[in-house]
């Protein structure tokens, strides 16, 4: 206990001010929300535009086909012939869900080859990544 000059005891302030903590957490949340779409993939792909677009909240495997018909698995270049083995051996994807991002200028034949390679890996739940139409 601490005594003051007039002889009365003073107690320490026991309340913790959490306002600065909440401010910092909200700023960090805002920063992560703004940078998360940018960090999704470093490969530049102009995906097609559609009316119905579902927002993703979970992280899944992404196969990307760029305009030069190069194939990437999670931003790493892969050979189309090695893709089924890499997808089947990936322990990260427990639900066997995959997202295919293809540039809108990619011919259908290249897209079909990638879809075939994904199906050879035993993955049947395939989603195609698109952008929403602008109003």
Description:
This protein has helices at 19-39, 83-89, 108-120, and strands at 2-3, 9-10, 49-50, 61-65, 71-73, 76-78, 97-102, 125-128, 131-132. The chain is elongated and about 90 Å long. The protein has 135 residues and is α/β, with parallel strands linked by helices. The protein has two domains: 2-39, no CATH class; 49-132, Nucleotidyltransferase, domain 5. It has three helices and nine strands; from the N terminus they run ββαββββαβαββ. The relative contact order is 0.17. The protein has a five-stranded mixed sheet with strand order 6-5-4-7-8, with helices on one face. β4 and β5 (71-73) form a beta hairpin. The longest helix is centred in the N-terminal third of the chain and has 21 residues, at 19-39.
Set out the fold topology.
Blueprint: E1 2-3, E2 9-10, H1 19-39, E3 49-50, E4 61-65, E5 71-73, E6 76-78, H2 83-89, E7 97-102, H3 108-120, E8 125-128, E9 131-132
Parallel strand pairs: 3-9, 4-7, 7-8
Antiparallel strand pairs: 1-2, 4-5, 5-6
Any descriptors?
single chain; about 140 residues; alpha/beta; Nucleotidyltransferase, domain 5; 2 domains; five-stranded mixed β-sheet; two-stranded antiparallel ribbon; about 30% helix
What is the makeup of the main sheet? 5 strands, mixed
Q: What value does the average pLDDT take?
A: 77
Count of distinct strands: 9
Widest sheet: strand order? 6-5-4-7-8
Sum up the overall morphology in one term: elongated
Our estimate of the beta-strand percent is: 15-25%
Structural class: alpha/beta
At the fold tier of CATH, the topology name of the largest domain is Nucleotidyltransferase, domain 5
Q: Nearest-angstrom radius of gyration? A: 25 Å
Provide the succession of SSEs: EEHEEEEHEHEE
CATH class wording of the largest domain: Alpha Beta
**How many domains is the backbone divided into?**
2
From the 3D coordinates, which CATH architecture of the largest domain would you assign? 2-Layer Sandwich
Low-confidence stretches: none
Helix content: 25-40%
Q: Please give the alpha-carbon distance between the first and last residues.
A: 68 Å
Count of DSSP helices? 3
